[in-house]
Amino acid sequence: MGNKQTIFTDEQLDAYQDCTFFTRKEILRLHGRYHELAPHLVPMDYTNDPDVKVPLALIVNMPELKENPFRNRIVESFSEDGLGNLSFNDFVDMFSVLSEMAPRELKAIYAFKIYDFNVDNFICKEDLEKTLNKLTKEELTPEEVNLVCEKAIEESDLDGDNKLSFADFENMISRAPDFLSSLHLQHLSDTLIQNDLQSVVTGTVPPWSNSGLNVYLRDTMVVSRT
Amino acid sequence: MPRHKLVASESDVSIEVDADFTEDRVREVKNERNPKAKERDTKRKLEIHKTTEQKTENKKRKRSHSKQRGKRNIDDEDKGGEQISKQKKNRKNKKTKKLLTEEAEGEGYITKQKKKRRPQVDEENANATKQMTPEGPPKKKKRAKVQVESSSESEDSSSEKESSEEEEWKVTALTPEELEKLKEAVDEKKKLITILRGKPWPMLKKLQTLKESHDFLEKFEGALGKGKAKKLYAYKVMMLKRWMKFQRDFENFKTACIPWEMKIKDIESHFGSSVASYFIFLRWMYGINMILFGLTFGLVMVPEALMGKPYGSMPRKTVPRAEQASAMDFAVLWDFGGYAKYSVLFYGYYNSQRAIGWLKFRMPLSYFLVGVGTVAYSYMVVIRTMARNANEQGGGDDTNFNFSWKMFTSWDYLIGNPETADNKFASITTSFKEAIVEEQESRKDDNIHLTRFFRVLANFLVLCCLAGSGYLIYFVVRRSQKFALEGLENYGWWERNEVNMVMSLLGMFCPMLFDVISNLENYHPRIALQWQLGRIFALFLGNLYTFIIALMDEINLKRKEEETVKLNMTVWMANLHNGTLAENSTAPPITADPADVPRGPCWETMVGQEFVRLIISDTMTTYITLLIGDFLRAVMVRFFNYCWCWDLEYGFPSYSEFDVSGNVLGLIFNQGMIWMGAFYAPCLPALNVLRLHVSMYLQCWAVMCCNVPQERVFKASGSNNFYMAMLLVILFLSTLPAIYTIVSIPPSFDCGPFSGKNRMFDVIQETLEMDFPAWFGKVFSYASNPGLVLPFLLLMVLAIYYLQSTSKTYKKANAELKKKLQAQNEENKKKNKRAALKASDPEEARNSASEQQWHQINNNASKKEMDTWGCERGQNQHVTTCTRQSAAVKRQCGPADLHNPSTRPPPAQRNPATHGYLPGNPHQPSLRMQRTSSLKLQ
């Protein structure tokens, strides 16, 4: 493999490539990210499929997910136990489904799972309210929320049961122009953001010399001001 | 073994049917299955919905099946049963169309499996199979309808089936037809492997399935074929594997080769997809320019530089005596004068010699074809990209799902930066509020007249701006011509660069002005953005075309000058001859240094130079604005904030936003200039590649370092084709003048590859005459005669017309179907509501239940009904109504037909078009379940 340390066997990598939309390099990078989440927990050597799971709290803090209002739901719907503990397989699965190459149908299935907060296989009004409140940070009044949810159900509920089944959801989402592009997630180059943060903390780097730093600087300043 | 699995997974559900058989099988399975598989099996069992209704449903169905089976068995033993099961499956297939596609595949696959197994099973097995066939489909159907997760079940079981089938295959000998079937199975496996990544299964399951299928393939791929055929097959398989491996490696390599991927992803995660879309566009443009550069560099510049006559060998390749003193000055070179002008960078340097070097390279022909080829290639790429984008976008024109879409697709999952996220939250909230207001239609147009007045005023102001800028450019260009006539040496830097500077400055300040003006209009931001884009587009276009018109004037002037030079030339030649004749009559006639020979103004080089200068100044302005407007501003805001009286960061100057639309427009116009000028200055693509390369780094850095995310975060996907369309328009508009000059203006007499010809395209004719056999020329002349070309054109026009009208018809039909579907949905909804109302009133329900229910059953019954029925069941009275009703139904249809409702009398209002997503479909089995359960009550 050329690496100094074997993380996966070639067969494993091939299998992962068959099962996901990733290239070899990306899978290795994903493993890097996974390892980073819990360095004590996750071994570097994955050739013998260790049974390791990283808890939800750690995964949710990944920069890709940190700002996502649905982060908990995303992680939960990809975990095998439904509680948000992800094994490496689940982890890869999550990024694969949310990658650019994943087809619409697949994304629709998982999107349904994500928005189905109470896991009853229907998106009911309660789910919609939760979704809306997360999207708007609860800035809409209860009447407005109610109205929007009712409208949404009215629009896409074909069978008139006042909740959205997967068929309804798929029918609605398959025509959405933005759906494919909206449900993307990507793994960044692993250390970029952390580097930025570190340099901000240590104060070794001038503000314009590093990418994205400015933004972080501003954030930290806002924090210190408040 | 399929039936092992099926029975095993079913064994917890069905006890009464085939109990002995089941146990028997389970024992067998235990021997075969490894603990892992067992564990998986139990897991799967857990996944299956284990509601009591389903269990009873299963039992019921099985009972009916066994009845039916008994009947069939009397008629004909094996074949009939098989056919029936197949038929049934077909019907089921039709009914479950709604399921995911792979589901359907899986089902077909199972059918095949069954077919395959049949011939080689012995008596006992045959018995088992017969028992299995009716069981398979219902089970699958139950799973399919229940929920999303279970949609994969049947597929899974099919694959497991296969893996356990290996054992059977080992023992039996392979007959040709079995081989055929095995081959089929192998192909199926392969297909499964290729589509595996699209399955909504957990990764563990995928990996296991993959492993199993790989094992299967390994075992049986070699077994196919006999003797030589076997070897050949093995070889083929091996090569195929290698090929796959190679493909995968190549794919990996390809993705590794995509430049700036990380950079763009990085930006994407900070600023959302719209800013990233600009960089993706930039990269795409870079790719195109690389190819244009490759064409011009490889086929025009390099051959001329290597094989053409060297510098100084003829007048067109030599700096004239008057300019030689300053030809190496930086100021001159920077203006692309001096040595730069007399080099391969410009049209004038090229020689009109037909074939150059030892390769006999046809230089003029190559020059012409490359010029045409770049344009043709650009057209092709742009149109292809547009078509692809249009395909990807799908039918996004449906506005019925306003709120749902807003709710489910408005969050951009790429956002990873808190500030962008905040902005996004805010913009989503406002968009919801706007939508609510629109929905309530309570927005009072408080002063529509004032708004209208402002809009008219704004448009008037913008028009004034446009006209003013157009006039300014025209004025400046005319002035520069005056300067040029008087000799540029007398003027300073500003006079020489006036045109470019004015154009760049206009391009910089007018958009800002438009932005200010558009505040008057009070449009929705999305519409405002489009207006803004349209205005900037008009401005740029106007400027460009004024520039071109001025250039045309100049070309005409130069051509007049050329006439006088030609006259002078003959005089000069005569003088030269006279001089030499007097001295030495035997010497060759021309001895003058090429630098001294008088020469024409060569308007082509002039045009090329103008474009190059324009590009350079444009690039410089962009970079300088970037440095001053973004970087310096950010630094100032950042550092002066410590000692300033108000908050600079959130107050007035603030950090700048990244202006996606303006940048995209700049890029598009830059490309337009490249297309226009590339024919006369082959160096333009190279320059542009350089520019784009630097831009990429510079802008990436600037964005990450000194810009803040936009306040209104727009999604990029919708506007992609908008940009492409603009690019196409620009491409068309920029090729127009180029083609006009090529076709209608005769080339200069003493410079460039076409010198001495009447028109530039004569080079084609010349090649046809000299390089091709005579018959080819004849054929070509026949083919190009109007008698053939006109009908051909007519045919093409007709074809276009036909295609367009068919597409229009399709669109219409599509809309019609959509309308129908909607009407159907509405009707369904209403009906369901009515049913619910009636159901809540027991007395009424009893009266009308029979009619109502009959109607419902026929009419793709839906979930709503299920609920109402559910509550009916809660009340005793209704149970009786219900059962009575369904019993009546049953009597009417006959027991055998119960599991295939499609044979019932045709429903009154079934609409075939609505099959796809009709609400009733997924729940049909559960409807049946209700009926069967009521049967049991009976």
Automatic annotation (TrEMBL), chain A:
One cellular component term from this protein's GO annotations in UniProt: photoreceptor outer segment
Domain EF-hand: 103-138, 144-179
Positions of transmembrane segments: none
Main location: membrane
PROSITE patterns reported in the protein's UniProt record: EF_HAND_1 (PS00018), EF_HAND_2 (PS50222)
InterPro entries: CIBP, EF-hand-dom_pair, EF_Hand_1_Ca_BS, EF_hand_dom
Keywords: Calcium, Cell membrane, Cell projection, Cytoplasm, Magnesium, Membrane, Metal-binding, Repeat
Alphabetized CDD domains for the sequence: EFh
GO MF annotation list: calcium ion binding; magnesium ion binding
Biological process, per Gene Ontology: calcium ion homeostasis
SUPFAM superfamilies hit by this protein: EF-hand
Compartments in which it is found: Cell membrane, Sarcolemma; Cell projection, Cilium, Photoreceptor outer segment; Cell projection, Stereocilium; Cytoplasm
Protein name: Calcium and integrin-binding family member 2
Originating organism: Denticeps clupeoides (denticle herring)
Name of the coding gene: CIB2
